[in-house]
């Protein structure tokens, strides 16, 4: 269990950071515990420290208000159990490996870019026709994620979002390894820097392709290669389950603090009223989900065979994302994908 005032490791984007637990929300007793001058006290409900300050999507389960070591207090935030880990040697090793992987990914990509420039090759902007070709099948399908995820037997869908609000104090499960290609790891690092350091947010709806269009295009492309009806059914169930996971995990796990105000605005805007999150958000948010999928699976009751199937399906999806990286992520024109935020927006979003 995590102790009030104790150390922990918390996910912020693709990385783990040392943090201190400043408050703890107990959903059973509906109380927020705060440490004041060495004593544990219960915060008043309507105070800034009380339940009124907890994001609505986290109130249903245990959650923690943390301060990231060495960061300004404006980054202090409430996080759910899926983003918090015990401060121990095993998780410190995981933290170190994530940093090393990110550095290697960045270094390798920079080296590839240098070689590309040296050879005189140019990477022009993706044509509108190319973007249309990859997405044309998706536009024919249509349909929201909620309707697509109702098929029987979907390995992800059957979990009903399991792991998104489960206690992490359970016995540690075997670590699930998902091989994320270097180019995609580098994208995650760039995404983290653009949002947390450059104070940019993604344009909504996604200017390239949406999560719905991305998964529909992937399903169409892979289905043509599969001869077995059983394999095609597994593919369809996987994509349906992933859409369901995305819908349920977006507000809990996939947004940086700077993006939460934008999320609140999406919920209020009339033009988004009848749209699912899969029809609004783009591939980078899907990639964020895929990067934490192993953590989510370790907190479910899914058997080993089911986990292995999802890992194989996910690695296939990741390979397809790499092949279509320019069309999906518009890597040559990040300025068209991310937009600057105003000082007023930052003040409200970060509580300054």
From TrEMBL:
One of its GO terms (biological process) is regulation of DNA-templated transcription. InterPro entries: Chromo-like_dom_sf, MRG, MRG_C_sf, MRG_dom, MSL3_chromo-like. The keyword Cytoplasm does not apply. Its main location: nucleus. Residues 170-331 form the MRG domain. Keywords: Chromatin regulator, Nucleus, Transcription, Transcription regulation. GO terms for cellular component: NuA4 histone acetyltransferase complex; Rpd3S complex. It is found in: Nucleus. Belongs to the MRG family. This is Chromatin modification-related protein EAF3.
């Amino acid at each position: 269990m995590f102790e009030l005032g104790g150390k922990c490791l918390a996910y912020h984007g693709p990385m783990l950071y040392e943090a201190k637990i400043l408050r703890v929300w107990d959903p059973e007793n509906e109380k927020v515990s705060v440490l004041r001058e060495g004593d544990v006290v219960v915060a008043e409900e309507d105070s800034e420290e009380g339940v009124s300050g907890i994001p609505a999507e986290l109130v249903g389960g245990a959650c923690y208000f943390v301060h990231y070591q060495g960061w300004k207090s404006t980054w202090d935030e409430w996080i759910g159990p899926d983003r918090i880990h015990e401060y121990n040697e095993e998780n410190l090793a995981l933290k170190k490996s994530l940093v090393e992987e990110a550095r290697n990914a960045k270094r390798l990509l920079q080296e590839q870019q240098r070689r590309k420039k040296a050879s005189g090759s140019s990477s022009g902007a993706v044509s509108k026709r190319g973007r249309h070709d990859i997405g044309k099948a998706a536009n024919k399908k249509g349909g929201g994620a909620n309707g697509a995820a109702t098929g029987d037997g979907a390995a992800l869908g059957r979990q009903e979002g399991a792991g998104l609000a489960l206690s992490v104090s359970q016995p540690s499960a075997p670590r699930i390894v998902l091989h994320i290609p270097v180019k995609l790891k580098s994208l995650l690092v760039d995404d983290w820097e653009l949002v947390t350091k450059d104070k940019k947010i993604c344009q909504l709806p996604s200017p390239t392709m949406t999560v719905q269009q991305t998964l529909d295009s992937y399903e169409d492309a892979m289905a043509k290669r599969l001869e077995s009806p059983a394999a095609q059914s597994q593919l369809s169930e996987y994509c349906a389950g992933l859409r369901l996971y995305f819908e349920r995990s977006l507000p809990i796990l996939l947004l940086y603090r700077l993006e939460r105000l934008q999320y609140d605005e999406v919920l209020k805007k009339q033009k988004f009223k009848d749209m699912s999150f899969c029809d609004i958000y783009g591939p980078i948010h899907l990639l964020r989900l895929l990067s934490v999928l192993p953590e989510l699976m370790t907190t479910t009751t899914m058997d080993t065979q089911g986990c292995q199937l999802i890992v194989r399906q996910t690695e296939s999806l990741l390979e397809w994302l790499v092949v279509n990286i320019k069309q999906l992520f518009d890597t040559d024109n990040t300025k068209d994908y991310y937009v600057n935020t105003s000082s007023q927006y930052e003040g409200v979003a970060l509580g300054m």
